Amino acid sequence: MPRESRLPVPIRNALPEGRILEDPATRLVYEYDAWSIVRNPPLAVAFPESTAEVRNLVRACIESGVAWTARGAGTCLSGGATPSGGTCLLIETSRMDRILSLDPEDRIAVVQPGRINLELSRAAAPFGLHFAPDPSSQSASTLGGNLAENAGGPHCFKYGMTTDHVLGLTLVDGEGEVCRLHRDDGLDLCGLVVGSEGTFGVLTECELRLIPTPTAVRTFLASFSSMEAACRAVAKIVSSGTVPAALEILDRLSIEAVEASVFAAGYPKGADAVLLVELDGEEDEVEAERIPVLRAVQSEAPLEVEETSDPEQRARLWRGRKGAFGAMGRLKPDLFVLDGVVPPSKLAAVLAEITAIGREQDILLSNVFHAGDGNLHPNLSFDGRNPGERERAMEAGRRILKLCVDAGGSISGEHGIGFEKIEHLSYLFSPTDLEILGEVRRCFDPAERCNPGKVLPLGRACGEGSSARRPGILPSREREDP
Ligand SMILES: Cc1cc2nc3c(=O)[nH]c(=O)nc-3n(C[C@H](O)[C@H](O)[C@H](O)COP(=O)(O)OP(=O)(O)OC[C@H]3O[C@@H](n4cnc5c(N)ncnc54)[C@H](O)[C@@H]3O)c2cc1C
Q1: How far is CA 404 from the centre of its chain?
Q2: Span 308-334, mean pLDDT?
């Protein structure tokens, strides 16, 4: 710890020597996350290893009047892990990456939040199990971050979002108390915490459901000369009653970016859209489902159809989809990824309007999306060094999210609200709604010091010390010191 430390003494003493960094280089590295539109250096970065250490840090922050933000891998695409303001302590979970238990019989794993998503599935693989939620960032993002964002992924169409795979959790709440919440314990507070983007407390343990790894998997890649045809093929697959494990679409610009990058997957050149479909389950189940899928695809006059169950070929086809956001770096230095949702039946019409908005704002716009559940990812590529480009990208973003809501959808399917979409909440909620949501949040964090300014606008508790919380509102038998 440097002698000229700016840190309040309680925080400085909360962890063993060397596990709180406040040098300028560290603060610079942690001033933003993958969203990168807003930058705020943290006061310092703390690296706890256990629930007890997180509790000590949070209590020290409360004593010192300092806010805090938890951070996993920083892959958040809505600014959730960007420190709030310049006086916020960043609680980094990379040293909390242990699997505390893995029970193959009950198919349950208890992990610390800093464990990387894919590493849990790798540890479960010898037992024929895996963790189903598979965000495209799964080789980097942490389970704590996945829970905080209620992350989705290509295979969530069939298997559900992260919340569907969480059985329980341990949280150090906004008052520095350790709460252990379980799905089966009356009101589903656990479900309330998942998706709260770090504003209810810091997750320190996650009890997760593992599922059997399917014995048969078949992947299809179909290319089309128009986006409309690809969307119609999706609608026909869904209405046939088949539930593919994944239904993903990339548009022409995304295909070109992927093929020019290290993620090149051999996607056909000259196509306006490629559709990835994956079926999984028992061999006979997959065999039966491939017939309606092929029928739907063939009815839309595809340019090419590739079908494979070979693991290497499947990995190649997925490499392009999973690397698509990374490949966007080839188009422009800055990327603004949106995450709107629309009813699947309106996909083609909304995409046409999105393209028109991109053209009007003169912004390079590409689309990669979870077609099965209507979760769009319009990617706005721009160069923030050019006057006006950032502003035009933001304006396009605003118009696209409003369009999604007007079409009966939402402003976020899986990337969260973070800083990014606070201004768009009014498309969905009235001021009264927001006040009620703020009251819910203050049950966990009365003074709004836990990742302030994310998900919800700062409410009346901030700076006033008021509290919506009655003492003991969270499960009392669980309010123990670790
Ligand atoms: C290339 C790329 C592809 C992506 N693909 C997908 C995708 O397919 N699906 C999807 O849903 N998302 C995707 N994302 C977004 C991102 O990966 C997810 O939101 C992910 O869940 C974030 O995990 P993280 O560990 O990086 O969390 P961070 O970015 O570090 O944090 C995210 C939020 O979680 C909070 N948080 C982190 N750890 C804790 C904790 N222990 N306790 C409480 N709060 C905590 C933070 O405060 C922040 O609000 C993608 C991102 C990238 C860069």
Answers
A1: 19
A2: 93
pTM: 0.93
Question: Where do the domains of the chain lie?
Answer: 9-92, 99-213, 216-326, 332-413
Q: Ligand 1: distance of its center to the CA of 146 in Å?
A: 5
Q: Which CATH class is domain 99-213?
A: alpha beta
Pocket test for ligand 1, best of 29, 54, 71, 262 (most atoms within 8 A of CB): 71
Domain 332-413 indexed as CATH 3.30.70.2740: yes
Instruction: Look at ligand 1, atom 2, and give the residue with the nearest C-alpha.
Output: 137
CATH class of 9-92: alpha beta
* CA-closest residue to ligand 1 atom 19: 76
Nearest protein CA to atom 7 of ligand 1, as residue? 135
Which atom of ligand 1 approaches the CA of 75 most closely? 26
Q: 475, 180 in Cβ contact below 8 A?
A: yes
11-24 mean pLDDT = 96
Tell me which of 45, 49, 75 to substitute to probe ligand 1's pocket, judged by most ligand atoms within 8 Å of the beta carbon. 75
Q: Where are the beta strands (DSSP E) in 149-261?
A: 166-173, 178-182, 201-209, 211-212, 216-224, 246-251
What number does CATH give the domain 216-326? Answer: 3.30.70.2190
33 lines ligand 1 (CB under 6 A): yes
Bridge partners (DSSP) of residue 364 are: 381
CA separation (Å) from 241 to 152, 215, 270, 289?
22, 21, 31, 9
Does position 467 have pLDDT exceeding 60, yes or no?
Answer: no
Residue of the CA atom closest to atom 9 of ligand 1:
135
Burial of 142-176, coded b for 16+ CB within 10 Å and e otherwise, reads: bbbbbbbbbbbbbbbbbbebbbebbbbbbbbbbbb
Relative orientation angle of helices 252-259 and 311-322, to the nearest 10 degrees: 110
Q: Hey, which of 89, 149, 193 would you mutate to test ligand 1's pocket, going by the most ligand atoms within 8 Å of its Cβ?
A: 149
How far apart are alpha carbons 83 and 67 in whole angstroms?
Answer: 9
**Is it the case that residue 474 has pLDDT exceeding 60?**
no
